[in-house]
Predict the 3D structure of the following.
Amino acid sequence: MSGNCGRDYTRRIYYYETDNMGIVHHSNYIRIMEEARMDFMRNLGYEYTAMEAQGIIMPVTGVSAQYLRPLHFDDIVHVRTKLTSFNGVRAAFSYEIFRQGEDRPSAVGESGHCFLDTATRVPVNLKKRYPEFYERAMEIQEKSK
Amino acid sequence: MSGNCGRDYTRRIYYYETDNMGIVHHSNYIRIMEEARMDFMRNLGYEYTAMEAQGIIMPVTGVSAQYLRPLHFDDIVHVRTKLTSFNGVRAAFSYEIFRQGEDRPSAVGESGHCFLDTATRVPVNLKKRYPEFYERAMEIQEKSK
Amino acid sequence: MSGNCGRDYTRRIYYYETDNMGIVHHSNYIRIMEEARMDFMRNLGYEYTAMEAQGIIMPVTGVSAQYLRPLHFDDIVHVRTKLTSFNGVRAAFSYEIFRQGEDRPSAVGESGHCFLDTATRVPVNLKKRYPEFYERAMEIQEKSK
Amino acid sequence: MSGNCGRDYTRRIYYYETDNMGIVHHSNYIRIMEEARMDFMRNLGYEYTAMEAQGIIMPVTGVSAQYLRPLHFDDIVHVRTKLTSFNGVRAAFSYEIFRQGEDRPSAVGESGHCFLDTATRVPVNLKKRYPEFYERAMEIQEKSK
């Protein structure tokens, strides 16, 4: 029923993430989304370092974010990550960033990814190159529907 | 004929913008887009500091980027910025990031913005609050069609 | 006996903190030191947001770091922070950054600070402006000797 | 007479470099120093990419900065870089960051570096590994005395 692996990613906002407007700079949400994605993979049982140890990298092919309500220094944020699509060649995640205690997200975002061989930078299909990850991701992605 | 104010924004990629994959981290393109947007406004004759001096801020309401080909340390990039929509209340920009000497962009992106009173954080209409900017932006946006 | 308030600051290294050398970019240690300092103040019972709510900011007047052994993506780091000097007008902190499971630090650093009135940016003496913080900081600094 | 290779490194302050205090975050000066160092090497005729092409990296072993007067968004800064010591095994640079039109620096800093083989991460002596760089750096360092 849920592709978010049961647990949100949580941390405080750092001072250096704020800007002249007194709010979190919009570029930093993209970074927080990456942190949440790495945490999601760790909870899945396949951390990103394990993927890199297989000689595979997962670069970002696209990213988007909608900023709904500002975040400030020291706010505690929870990120709810979902694997929204996966076919062994490409993957997409969605993110909802909540300020602690709030029901409506402060921001939402998405990211798209491909899988490349680290050395050649040629696309790989995880079904062949990393089947245990493939199976687990297919399973998680099914649940998120 | 062109909404890009006649001149691309150009700079080198910094070492600290690269990551473990040996390429520019995807979050940094969002920052380069901001630099290009500020440069675009400067060329327009209305730099962002002038807007803030009017008690108006222009926060980002949404952002997206598609990463087509990686960038590396010391690459020289040109950013072609356009004001794609503007009505005094909201604005949108598009960006094409080219590696020097290449015809196809390394990345493309978009950003959406609103205008707020700095003190109250209430939306303002530039037609009333900053008419000279409004006129210039309407003119530029027309040209970009 | 110890000025580190009993608890290290701990977190993982993020992917976006690495660079082209495959290690954490040196500028990011300065940011991790800031996170640890904010955490130290929180443990002290006087978080930085409380200080800012008093109309006081604590800018950095100087910083230094020595990089002893590199850190990598996903490393868990512990930061041991001490308040090494404090007189109500100026403060200094020291930091030791350890990779989890290691006895020798990966990096050490220091930061110096003053206290300013937020509105006027004029130096303030916390003994007068924020006596409860002053007392607590004097006490902690004594213990750290 | 001067080790700064005749030309300052100049650029504007970006919006994302500011923080909640309305000034440039202290960690960003460390990054600007890196930009200036890379520019210094380029002017020397030996850009950092050329060094990496030789299989040599120049990591930072230590860094320090003193913040004298704050910088703000859109300020134009000039950085005066000097190679203060060099022996083929280690190098040190100093930096003075000036706000345009000002005689006294806004910040000063220093960085220390070693030279490592990219693959083995073992220290190398440039006198043997990269003699043309060694000669040029010795010459420049002499002039800076």
